[in-house]
Amino acid sequence: MDDTRFLPRQALQTLLDALHRQGYRTLGPVVQDAVVQYLDIDSIDRLPSGWTDDQAPGRYRLSRVDSPRCFAWATGAQALKPHLFHAREVLWNTRRDDAGKLVFGEQEPDVRRLAVIGVRACDLAALELQDRHFLHAIKDPYYGAKRQGLFVVAVHCAYSADTCFCASTGDGPRATHGFDLALSELDDGYLVETGSDRGRAIATQLPLQSATSTQVHEAAAAITEAANRQFRQLPSTHLRDVLFDRLQHPRWEEVAARCLACGNCTSVCPTCFCHAEHDDAALGGSTSQHLREWDSCFSEGHAYLHGFNVRPDTHQRYRQWMTHKLGSWHDQYGRSGCVGCGRCITWCPVGIDITEEANAICTADVPQGESP
Questions:
Q1: How would residue 366 be classed by pLDDT, with cut points 50, 70 and 90?
Q2: Torsion of CA 16, 21, 22, 27, to 10 degrees
Q3: Measuring CA to CA, which residue among 159, 163, 135, 141 is closest to residue 77?
Q4: Please, what sign has the CA dihedral across residues 163, 29, 212, 194?
Q5: Is 5 in contact with 203 (CB distance < 8 Å)?
Q6: Would the pLDDT of 201 be above 50?
Q7: What's the pLDDT at 305?
């Protein structure tokens, strides 16, 4: 990581222009449908200047604030996942030729270059986990093609929502690696750090100035304050053994009584990768597509195996989700699958809090008479 430089606020457009000259499709945070989401941007005027968010279990609201800042919010509903692991994607296609024979065709991966501005530290940690799964574990060519063309402009968090707990997972609020450029937002501009050769090449096209010690101190203090603001936390970064020792804990039934098994938590989670595959045939029967679509361990069909359902009840599905996310990910990928973004808390319709449930199961004594 190179020395930090300063980019005046009015010069942020030069970053977008430099990315466009390099052929990148550029996404940035935009307020649309009452939520901050990543959409195509050509001008910094589309960025959410003067907006902040209010998040709580089962609640997300945007409000106006008297501030020139464009990144004074925590997280939107989605991170990078939908842009690399598409919610619905064609893997191959089939057609009948003139002789009536089936001909299978390969679906070419999307190789367009994509730059995303505003990526948070928790989402960079999630990106690294998605890489471990799609690039190294299953070597998925569709994810790999999109990942190769990804340019990441991170933003260090100077604000945490009430549902954030990345400090307890060790994944934020400062981005430490995995970015091409990283920004710290101040009222008058941005401190800019480079994290890759591609980032350094873009930085040479920006009107950067030397950062003052006051600017560096202010940015660091804001990141520290964002961490100190977080009051939610997991009991540990490694819960594998205690979770599997407490598979019969009564709390699983208690949370299942509230859980709707809707799958919202897995849809907004930046690390979940469950999917299903099926064929979509044309009405005439002459062509079909083989599709991959997001699925959830909370759906009934996800646990259907050879004529019976291995997890017919909600408490078994919630237990599967949490024990996998916080437990067996350590065996698969060397760490927990939770990065502390808090989305599953915010977007749960009934406000179930993963940190509350993990603490109740892992730190409270098991009632007498229950199996440990």
A1: low
A2: 30
A3: 163
A4: positive
A5: yes
A6: yes
A7: 85
Residue pair 337/345 in contact by the 8 Å Cβ criterion? no
Q: What is the pLDDT of residue 370?
A: 46
185 and 155 Cβ atoms separated by less than 8 Å = yes
Taking a C-beta distance cutoff of 8 angstroms, is the pair 103, 96 a contact?
A: yes
Distance CA(130)–CA(137), nearest Å, equals 10
What separation in angstroms does the CA of 365 have from each of 84, 237, 242?
Answer: 42, 19, 12
- Compute the distance between CA of residue 197 and CA of residue 70 in angstroms, rounded to an integer: 26
Model pLDDT for residues 105-127, shown as the tens digit of each residue: 999 888 899 999 999 999 999 99
CA nearest neighbour of 270 among 329, 342, 195, 181: 342
> Are the beta carbons of 41 and 30 closer than 8 angstroms?
yes
* Contact status, residue 128 vs residue 195, Cβ threshold 8 Å: no
Closest CA to 240 of 332, 317, 330, 315: 330
Helix 251-258 vs helix 314-323: angle between axes, to the nearest 10 degrees? Answer: 110
pLDDT value for 367: 52
d(CA 226, CA 172) in angstroms, rounded, equals 9
Six token digits for residue 3? 């020395």
Q: Compute CA distances 173 → 73, 76, 116, 165, whole Å.
A: 12, 15, 18, 9
- Written as one string, the DSSP assignment of 233-282 is --S-S--HHHHHHTTT-THHHHHHHH-----HHHHH-SS---EEEEEEE-
149-195 pLDDT, tens per residue? 999 999 999 999 999 999 999 999 999 999 999 999 999 999 999 99
Tokens 């464009």 belong to 70
Asked if 218 and 189 touch (Cβ cutoff 8 Å), the reply is no
Give the H/E segment covering residue 186. Answer: strand 181-186
Does the global pTM surpass 0.85? yes
pLDDT at 20 over 60: yes
Which tokens in the block code for residue 150? 């990804």
CA 29 – CA 79 distance, rounded (Å): 10
Instruction: Kindly report the length of the chain.
Output: 372
Long-range Cβ pairs for the range 205-208 (8 Å, 24+): 205/14, 205/18, 205/21, 206/7, 206/11, 206/14, 206/15, 206/18, 207/7, 207/8, 207/11, 207/14, 208/5, 208/6, 208/7
3-state SS class at 335: coil
